Hints:
Layout: H1 10-34, H2 40-55, E1 58-59, E2 65-66, H3 71-78, H4 80-98, H5 106-129, H6 135-162, H7 164-167, H8 182-215, H9 218-221, H10 229-241, E3 265-266, E4 269-270, H11 276-279, H12 298-332
Antiparallel strand pairs: 1-2, 3-4
Amino acid sequence: MHIPDNYLSPATCAVMVLAVIPVWVVSVKKVAKDMPREKFPLLGIGGAFSFLIMMLNIPLPGGSTGHAVGGTLLAVLLGPYAACISISIALLIQALVFGDGGILSLGANCFNMAFVIPFSGYLIFKLVKDRVTSRTGEYVGLAVASYVAINLAALCAAVEFGIQPLVARDAAGLPLYCPYPLAISIPAMLIPHLAVAGLVEAAFTVAILAFIAKTSPETIFAGSSARLKPLYALLAALVVASPLGLLAAGTAWGEWKVEDIKNVMNGGSALGYVPGGMAKGLDFAAPLRDYTAGGMHGIVGYVVSAILGVAVLVIVFKLLGLLKRGNRARSDA
Length: 333
């Protein structure tokens, strides 16, 4: 679901940035006003959770791959506004450092994964939670909410891909960017997510929330940061498990390298050309592209990349917590 650069036209990228900026502004204001400084480390931990599970690629029907996001989980744990910030920064780090998702398409990726998933997932969960009285009912609602939310995000990505042949063509009438229309992009994105990725997202969400409710319930119910050790232990386990993402063969639909798109098969035939806008587009050289840290490939590179990503996210939000404490101290003075 990480849309690379050059698949969306510059106009589409601009529209998506404009769409997500108000969400970022409101989210930052809400978190700065309402979230206690003591809970800021949870933002970093939440972003790290999302970062790690997005590294765990799984095989999907049709030979592509996909991943969970954890957006509904973070929305239930921290609130949708905090989840939006955590996932947005995780996506920014993935794009800038690891080349996972584009720079120009960051607005679209944040709209899909940092806005659509946490806000729709949280809304659906609340609708169910307010109508059930049992813990089992809440978990069922959580599973349904996370399943629906990730599929809504997949649908948004499919529409963004599929409108490109309509909005940008060359003089010969060929698409300049993603060449696949809605009739191809929607089933290509939705069928694998409905069949597999959504179920994985639901299972992950329920399992992690059950773990946190058992080992560190005060982080959910009391807002305390007193028992973070179980959460850090869970992060460490996910870091160790991250190379499992290498086992999924193939490439996620819509995330092919520009030079490879001409060989992508659809309906039994290859595309046969590279769209002009894609061929002449941005080629950002991320320092640890494809999670190959320091030239280390395979398992070692993946684990080192996971550690670096987690460390950056945790440190960033710790610094933001310190900044908020400093601002509050000056305000009190």
